[in-house]
């Protein structure tokens, strides 16, 4: 087990930087970070308190878990240790449903999104920083292709599936077009899956009752895109990073040292232990992420990257975190994962980085969610693990002991 003590990061920084560059995203929305605004502008948009705010239909989206997360964070804010949360960081942002809920309800002051999939990052960056051009592109795709349906729409789906940025395109156009690819495929592919083998909604023959455009309501999408633009304009969405989770967690203290240790919280929603490799381009499956199984050629489950994340969160995290996972017994039983009840950083990390030995609380939550390969929603037990002050973590019928 010694290899677990010095785990690899899941994605090499150079590899990620190359694809971020190709998709025109860079590491952040702009090379010049915006200064931290002490005064917060109000959010004035109808969607702030809406039930659905994300323009993406994301596989594994946490919209049903978001109210529970809001409850846990609100409860923590009643403590002396965490009186306010100035920044919520979401290193596995995907469709960002939890962050959008937290910011809309005023549970946190600002949000920072990050993901390792450059297509997803291009989408969020363009929605924030190039909103009106993305809205125009979205309406155009609707009028010219999706609304027509049938072969016209399926051909367009094939076009986007095969599209890759030309390096000669201007950077901003590359990012905008990658954002359009993300939005198009997300709205027209079965379960919103962007990569891999999932096909268009309604099938290639379009003979189903649910045609390819059935999840494309242009006015509703435009409103959601404009909400993201508004959040960025008023400084509530502070940035969107194209980074591996580890880089994100390492970089937050460097960018926002004034928030350490307790005015910043990370919400982490990593790919599930089961099934993630069929859903995301970047899953924790080290063999590439498509259609792989957790069981490797050796017949042994390869959970190195889940171990890596757990190791970091237990020993290196400089701010409090809240993690959601599928309820897999390995997670709470294995002491290399979250079997322990307390963080255990090294002496030097405690002294040099100020890493604390916060208690780790675990709760089981029943939710309803949609997953690839299923029609409609199904219920599941979701595991919440957190270093928020243990006395504040609710324990009741909704949040049971794990
Ligand atoms: C479960 S989804 C997040 C869903 C999101 N919470 C929502 O509500 O839509 C996991 C996300 O993690 C991203 N991801 C996978 N491996 C990653 C890594 N090593 N670093 C950062 N993000 C990663 C995937 O691209 C995917 O968007």
UniProtKB/TrEMBL annotation:
Protein EC: 2.1.1.72
GO biological process, one term: methylation
Tagged with keyword Transferase: yes
Cross-referenced Pfam families: MethyltransfD12 (PF02086)
InterPro entries: Ade_MeTrfase_dom_2, MeTrfase_D12, SAM-dependent_MTases_sf
Keyword S-adenosyl-L-methionine recorded: yes
Reaction(s) catalysed by this chain's protein: a 2'-deoxyadenosine in DNA + S-adenosyl-L-methionine = an N(6)-methyl-2'-deoxyadenosine in DNA + S-adenosyl-L-homocysteine + H(+)
Gene Ontology molecular functions: methyltransferase activity
Keywords for this protein: Methyltransferase, S-adenosyl-L-methionine, Transferase
The family this protein is said to belong to: Belongs to the N(4)/N(6)-methyltransferase family.
Protein name in UniProt: site-specific DNA-methyltransferase (adenine-specific)
Species: Nonomuraea angiospora
